[in-house]
């Protein structure tokens, strides 16, 4: 068995139960989840989780494990049990300004896997199965005049990939990862943010309707560095993303933003882990999602670990889900594990519900038609996150996609009403 990624630590005991109760008649599930703020120590804490490059170190998931209990394993097409064979491809295209370097390297390149080890079987499978990795390096003190764009285009079949983005000390960069096409794809994405550097990453998951994508993002943030991630998931049949952040020194800052819109039959799952393993660091997690259609399922699980040496930590995690039709389900599970009492702040919030009736009434009382009022409410719901991206063309693209999704919802509603007339 490979050594554990994290040293043994004792957790301070406290257990609690979080209840996220949707509004009456939403068709969404009431979610009750246990989480810890430090009291009775759970059987296995996040500080002791396994990390290994070897897929054999991880048992095949059964669906009963905490990290797999929401995921429909039968829809993973063998990515979790070793039966998937690499018979397809995902094309990787990189558009980067000077002085960024872009390399295609083999498995023996020492930089690959240097940020962190895989922490579940699919990530380890992807690490063992990829043939070529893409390495993007932003030199020390570089200030890019435009974003680096990485396009991942599924060409069908099953494929495995690896991407490393290395932003050196005091450099500043924006990276856009744009996913499209059809594939069954598992990959690891590493981000190394050097001391004093600034990195913003926008990941756009707009896969074809039949795509399956399981992606692990491993982030290491250096002393006084800032990392900002915007993870957007609109497409795919099943998309499961796992951003994981650790800090290399004091003064580091991580902001994780997310948007998702689940349609009928879609399974969109976001699992986050922020490891406060250094003092005086800050993290913020804000994810918002909308769901519509029978069988639409969104899962958001966010774990924040504050280790015993992470004094002065300031962290907060927030999830909001807006259920637009009956038959959709949202599971929202915020967790805190705290091993020191010397923190600036540590909190979380989660809610699932329908439209705010008061907002709709206010808009409609001023002559705005019901359909337009609903659009305005949903646009406002997402706008808080979208406008933090800071890239106008991406913001406009996402707002247009939200409008398209709403058009399908309202069109279906009118069709149902017409059929019943």
UniProtKB/TrEMBL annotation:
InterPro entries according to UniProt: Fe-S_cluster_assembly_SufBD, SUF_FeS_clus_asmbl_SufBD_core, SUF_FeS_clus_asmbl_SufBD_sf, SUF_FeS_clus_asmbl_SufD
Single GO BP term: iron-sulfur cluster assembly
Domain of life: Bacteria
Pfam families noted in UniProt: SUFBD_core (PF01458)
Record-annotated SUF system FeS cluster assembly SufBD core domain positions: 156-381
Family the entry assigns: Belongs to the iron-sulfur cluster assembly SufBD family.
Name of the molecule in the record: FeS assembly protein SufD
Organism of origin: Carbonactinospora thermoautotrophica
């Amino acid at each position: 068995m490979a050594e554990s990624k994290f040293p043994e630590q004792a957790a301070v005991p406290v257990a609690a139960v979080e209840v996220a109760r949707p509004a009456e008649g939403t068709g969404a599930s009431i979610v009750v989840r246990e989480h810890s703020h430090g009291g009775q120590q759970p059987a296995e804490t996040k500080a002791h989780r396994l990390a290994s490059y070897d897929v054999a170190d991880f048992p095949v998931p059964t669906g009963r494990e905490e990290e797999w209990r929401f995921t429909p394993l039968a829809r993973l097409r063998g990515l979790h049990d070793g039966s998937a064979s690499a018979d397809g491809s995902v094309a990787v295209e990189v558009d980067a300004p000077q002085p960024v370097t872009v390399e295609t390297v083999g498995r023996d390149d020492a930089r690959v896997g240097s940020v962190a080890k895989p922490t579940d079987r699919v990530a380890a499978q992807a690490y063992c199965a990829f043939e070529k990795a893409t390495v993007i390096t932003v030199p020390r003190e570089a200030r890019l005049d435009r974003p680096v764009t990485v396009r991942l285009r599924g060409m069908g079949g099953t494929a495995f990939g690896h991407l490393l983005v290395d932003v050196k000390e005091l450099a500043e960069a924006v990276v856009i990862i744009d996913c499209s096409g059809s594939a069954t794809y598992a990959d690891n994405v590493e981000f190394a943010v050097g001391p004093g550097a600034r990195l913003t990453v926008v990941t756009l998951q707009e896969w074809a309707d039949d795509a399956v994508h399981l992606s692990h993002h491993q982030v290491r943030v250096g002393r006084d560095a800032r990392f900002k991630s915007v993870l957007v998931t609109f497409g795919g049949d099943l998309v499961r993303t796992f951003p994981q952040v650790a800090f290399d020194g004091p003064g580091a800052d991580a902001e994780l933003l997310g948007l998702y819109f689940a349609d009928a039959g879609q399974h969109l799952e976001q699992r986050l882990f922020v490891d406060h393993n250094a003092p005086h660091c800050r993290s913020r997690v804000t994810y918002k999602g909308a769901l519509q259609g029978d069988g639409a399922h969104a899962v958001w699980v966010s774990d924040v670990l504050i280790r015993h040496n992470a004094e002065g930590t300031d962290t907060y995690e927030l999830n909001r889900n807006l259920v637009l039709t009956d038959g959709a389900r949202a599971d929202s599970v915020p967790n805190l594990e705290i091993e020191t009492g010397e923190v600036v702040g540590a909190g979380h919030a989660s809610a699932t519900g329908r439209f705010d009736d008061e907002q709709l009434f206010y808009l409609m009382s001023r002559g705005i038609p019901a359909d337009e009022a609903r659009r305005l409410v949903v646009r406002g719901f997402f706008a808080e996150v979208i406008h933090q991206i800071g890239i106008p063309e991406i913001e406009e693209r996402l707002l247009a996609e939200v409008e398209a999704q709403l058009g399908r919802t309202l069109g279906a509603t009118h069709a149902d009403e017409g059929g019943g007339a």
